[in-house]
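Hi R.,

As promised on Friday, here is the backbone we talked about, encoded as structure tokens. Could you run it through your design pipeline when you get a chance and send me back a sequence?
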């Protein structure tokens, strides 16, 4: 759990999609999907506390706008966490995989916009469209968490105007804030294994610390290629081209 947590913390901080590894490990250890989903939120909170602190020290955190955008995400996450018990996870994951693959197209189609952000958008006040987008992202994050970082990055870069490094900083802040509320919903529904979650979180914190420092040091191009690789691997898993569960089972044997 600790070793897998290092990879999850690193991937989630630079891009997203690491939750697939977390859920797979918890399922291998015998947790039902709803408890695995809730348990994962413990590590998400701790890894993002680490990342937020590191980004703040590097002076790339925009606190005011990040907190304002987190508010609709919080409302959405509470709704999403409550819906997590009943939703058809398999078909939803396939739809998400297609959307994530489309992100690669935008990163190459308008690379300067995705990498460097837009100053004109940054100067605008938050409008109702942005509130709606982050509310919907919050619903998805509350439900599954898998790949929510991709949607937040897209919204923060293309919709709000941040460059990719600053968007990463705001992303982890928003996830940190709404996950507290989502975790509370899972706790109230007895869908959290604290022992597994805290052990897994040890690795998450290490991975998040390394990734948050690398994101600033290496710059936006490095982050872009990490995101592309992780999107391809995550989408292939969601679309059924390979099964990470089977790979990990083979390794453990």
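Update: got your reply. Pasting your designed sequence below so it's all in one thread:
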């Amino acid at each position: 759990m600790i070793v897998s947590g290092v990879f999850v913390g690193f991937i989630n901080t630079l891009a997203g999609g690491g939750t697939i590894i977390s859920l797979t490990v918890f399922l291998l250890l015998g947790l039902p999907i709803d408890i695995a989903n809730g348990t994962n939120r413990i590590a998400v909170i701790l890894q993002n506390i680490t990342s937020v602190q590191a980004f703040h020290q590097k002076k790339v955190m925009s606190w005011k706008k990040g907190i304002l955008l987190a508010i609709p995400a919080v409302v959405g996450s509470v709704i999403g966490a409550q819906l997590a018990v009943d939703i058809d996870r398999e078909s939803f994951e396939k739809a998400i995989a297609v959307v994530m693959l489309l992100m690669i197209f935008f990163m190459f189609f308008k690379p300067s916009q995705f990498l460097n952000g837009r100053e004109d958008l940054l100067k605008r006040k938050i409008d109702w469209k942005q509130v709606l987008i982050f509310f919907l992202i919050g619903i998805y994050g509350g439900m599954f968490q898998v790949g929510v970082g991709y949607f937040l990055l897209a919204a923060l870069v293309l919709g709000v105007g941040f460059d990719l490094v600053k968007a990463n900083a705001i992303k982890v802040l928003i996830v940190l804030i709404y996950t507290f509320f989502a975790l509370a919903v899972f706790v109230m529904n007895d869908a959290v294994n604290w022992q597994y979650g805290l052990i897994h979180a040890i690795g998450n914190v290490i991975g998040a610390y390394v990734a948050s420092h690398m994101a600033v040091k290496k710059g936006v191009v490095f982050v872009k290629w990490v995101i592309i690789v992780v999107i391809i691997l995550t989408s292939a898993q969601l679309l059924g081209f390979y099964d990470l569960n089977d790979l990990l089972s083979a390794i453990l044997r």
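One thing I noticed while checking it: The radius of gyration is 17 Å.

Thanks again,
M.
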